[in-house]
Amino acid sequence: MIRSATLLMLALSLGACAVGPDYTPPTLDMPQRWSATTSGPKAPKPSEWWRSLRDPTLNALIDQAIAGNLDVAQAKARIRDARAAREQAVGALFPQVDGGATASRSRSALVTRNSFRAGFDASWEIDLFGARDRAVEAATYGTDAAFDDLDSVMLTLIGDVASTYVESRGLQARIALARSTARTQRETEALTRTRFRAGDISAIDTSRATAQAASTESQIPLLETSLAQNQHRLAVLTGRPPAAMAPYFARPAAVPATPAPPRAGIPADVLRRRPDVRSAERLLAQATARIGQAEANRYPSVSLTGSISTSALKLGDLAKNSAIGWSIGPSLSVPIFNGGELAAAVDAARAQRDRQDAAFRLAVLTALQDVENGLVGLRQERLRLGSLSEAARASGEAARLSRALYASGNVSFLDVLEAQRSEYGAEESLIQSRVALVTQFIALNKALGGGWLRPVAVSVPAVIDGETGPRPRLIPIEEPQP
To answer: Could you give the angle at which helices 131-197 and 275-296 cross, rounded to 10 degrees?
Structure first.
């Protein structure tokens, strides 16, 4: 009997097959080049692009964010979850063996008897149509997607930290500009008062000078509020309390200079570089495997069960003077009528595959859009910065000349006000353009999929449990609330 069961098991294993579609990556019609660039198709180099900004503070903040950000911690936990799910799916491929023991004491006709039994029960559901193989396949794809999701979270995090930091440095520069401009305007106000007391001008010029200086000073609290909010956001991104960033911005620093644009490569490069695109493709593969898993449930299933046990009247006789019994045999289960439930499960799996297919194609199109936007935005902002630099130089010269001419009585005060207003606006626009240029550089690198290159530990749980074995359980009893 054992020989027959073994032969049956081997025959079923060798004859096992798979149902459902086999996954093949979808064919995409990708453009040959980017429309917003004229450079050659040089492939992007893997690099931690933010280091090219040459800002030690930014580098330190990004290192802290990777180590302490809570979105990254969640992504690491999802990887451990996906790994555990795959191990469960693999474990279902093997026979399941359980051990058991019983002891009983009975009395009849003034005779007391003890009975002891120990044994093993084994069962194995043969994967005749590949349902469990498909489950392992789906779990493997899910694990791959979890790793890609971690890369995507880190890519987004690095971009958020870099752009928020650059914006904060821009706010510091705008605050310094507003204070400097307000001082100059207060000096002009003092000059108008001197001329008013001398009878050279009317009181209206003094009022105008006061109003302009006060208007400039009113911008400072708004800018400082925005700077504080950015610092709070950076602290949360690094996994720290909101006030933790104040020391990093105790001393103002310049907006980082923008290096040369990164290599864009060809559009097909985003398929392997963008972690969100890779994750969407893995999820599509997982959804395809689950169709086969649902389809296999519509076919017969074969299980092989067996048990071996020993029984005795004395506990010490279980290993020597005991009765040994065993049983082994296959069982067949055939779905005959289930009200269309199994067919509906296959239809649902196919619909989920179609949804993931659309999500993957959307991820590809979004990635292409991001790169095109980044290329054109970086190029146009660089041109804009050049024009604003020229405008700021000319406005500054005009403001100095008008103030000197006003002091000698050769121009009206309205000319001074307009010149100072234009200078302040041009300088502020120049600072904002510098921030925007670096932000476009960050956005392009994110769109190209550049990110963290060093290993990230994902196997160590964030929460370490203490004693988890059997122990007395103490249940606290709370007093009812009045």
So the answer is: 150
